[in-house]
Design goal:
globular, single chain, 11 strands, 6 helices, alpha/beta, 245 residues, Rossmann fold
């Protein structure tokens, strides 16, 4: 089985977010970067599948050389090899286009992503890859099983669960529950140094959007407590101070 896993290089979840003075870019100074947690779930499930059924797992990311420590961690966890598209990931369409251009003639049985990246939370790349490659795409999957040329997937929907069967190849995004992320051991860390990491230049993609500026949310105000018998006071506060959601 041949699986491609898309990984993002994202700020650690404990990072204190700030932006450049012109508010046009994220300030990465002093920030620790990690594999996007949802992508790590996807990677673990891919490894489980190939361990049980044979095959190889390739990880791909779009980024400059600063992303290579994150890629090496994915290799240490167990990926067979890696690809870095040498470009800054400017938006979801750009990322999906680069992944699709690489994967189009490689014969992957399965392409996995995380349900979203924890920096932009867009949840767009999976479906875009599927559209660009003319493959079925299924998002926010909590369980994924492969039996021959068929895939059985389970998603949570409002009020219940949805179970889907789909022929391979396909694109799917991993959510919590699909697998338990692994911690690389010393053997994996050592072997990651010698695993192949190919660097490929990006294909040309039209610029469809650009970021005007970033803004941090307003600081939270102090909580006002109203006694249970002060209904009129509560109504007055809701009219005078509460903001529409």
């Amino acid at each position: 089985m041949k699986i491609l896993v898309c990984i993002s290089n994202v700020p650690d979840t404990t990072t204190k977010i700030s932006f450049t003075d012109d508010k046009k870019a994220f300030n990465a100074a002093g920030v620790q970067f990690i594999i996007n947690p949802y992508d790590e779930i996807a990677l673990t499930r891919a490894l489980e599948l190939t361990e049980n059924q044979g095959g190889a797992v390739t990880v791909i990311t779009i980024g400059d050389a600063s992303t290579e420590p994150t890629i090496r961690k994915a290799l240490a966890i167990g990926a067979t090899d890696a690809v870095r598209i040498n470009a800054v990931a400017r938006d979801a369409y750009f990322v999906a286009s680069q992944v699709a251009a690489y994967a189009r003639d490689k014969g992957f049985d399965l392409i996995l992503t995380g349900r979203e990246s924890i920096d932009y939370n867009g949840s767009q790349v999976t479906s875009m890859i599927g559209e660009l490659l003319d493959l079925p795409s299924i998002s926010i999957v909590k369980s994924l099983q492969v039996d021959g040329s068929q895939c059985l997937l389970e998603r949570e929907i409002e009020g219940g669960k949805e179970v889907i069967t789909c022929p391979l190849p396909l694109v799917a995004s991993a959510s919590e529950g699909m697998a338990e992320p692994r911690i690389p051991n010393m053997r994996g860390i050592m072997s990651a140094r010698t695993k192949a990491l190919a660097v490929i230049e990006a294909v040309e993609v039209p610029v469809l959007q650009h970021i005007v500026q970033y803004e941090k949310p307003a600081a939270r105000g102090q909580v006002k407590l109203v006694q249970a018998d002060e209904v009129n006071k509560l109504v007055d506060l809701l009219h005078a101070e509460a903001k529409a959601i």
